Amino acid sequence: MAQKTKKAARPRRAAAKSVELSHYDRAGRARMVDVSGKQPTARTAEASAEVQLGPKVMAALKDNPKGDPFEVARFAGIQAAKRTSELVPMCHPLPLSHVDVSCTVCQDGLVVIRSKAATRAETGVEMEALTAVTVAALTVYDMCKALDKGIVIRSIQLERKSGGKSGDFERPRGTQR
């Protein structure tokens, strides 16, 4: 019978500046980040998503028996932002001071959904902005799926954020679009 040998543990390399995923403890278990020691600061985030509608859907938008899918999507996105911590397990519930969602119909059936979220809290509002555009895009799909199951949702992304320890972020123009 062959004898099993244990692999030697690889030594950890020290990095000049260690970047760690904050939602894991030292044992690798998922955890909610403790923000109790942080001071509340003003934070904002903007996100976007795209929904590609086919010509049949575009032609029928005016006569949709369910109503204006973009207005319903706007409301759904705002509601979703307020409930992000119920949907994403490690998100903190935040006192949102502002949420806005807009839908813009561009050329060839492309719909761009944008959200803005703001708070004064110990942690950022990126997840709320991303959740808003995601649920708004799903709502557009839901309201138009009777005409076309081939609707495509894509490019859900953070566009910019401000505030917090990690500082400001702005997606360079022309990336991921």
What are its keywords?
single chain; 177 residues; alpha+beta; Alpha-Beta Plaits; 5 strands; elongated
Report the count of strand segments.
5
**How many domains is the backbone divided into?**
1
CATH fold topology:
Alpha-Beta Plaits
Q: What value does the Rg take, in angstroms?
A: 21 Å
CATH superfamily: Molybdopterin cofactor biosynthesis C (MoaC) domain
Question: Into which percent range does the helicity of residues fall?
Answer: 10-25%
Strand order of the largest sheet: 2-3-1-4-5
**Which class in CATH terms?**
Alpha Beta
Q: Would you identify the regions where 5 or more consecutive residues have pLDDT less than 50?
A: 6-18
The average pLDDT value, as a whole number, equals 87
| Inertia-based shape | elongated
In terms of DSSP E residues, the strand content is: 25-35%
- Give the number of helices: 4
Distance between the termini: 58 Å
Broad structural category = alpha+beta
Sketch the topology as an H/E string, one letter per element. Answer: EHHHEEHEE
Largest sheet: 5 strands, antiparallel
**CATH architecture name:** 2-Layer Sandwich
Question: Could you describe the 3D structure shown?
Answer:
It is a single chain. With 177 residues, this protein is an alpha+beta fold. It has a single domain (41-164), classed as 2-Layer Sandwich (Alpha-Beta Plaits), CATH 3.30.70. The protein has helices at 55-60, 69-82, 84-87, 126-144; strands spanning 41-52, 96-105, 110-121, 152-162, 169-170. The chain has a five-stranded antiparallel beta sheet with strand order 2-3-1-4-5, with helices on one face. Helix 2 runs antiparallel to helix 4 (126-144). The longest helix is centred in the C-terminal third of the chain and has 19 residues, at 126-144. It is elongated. The termini are far apart.
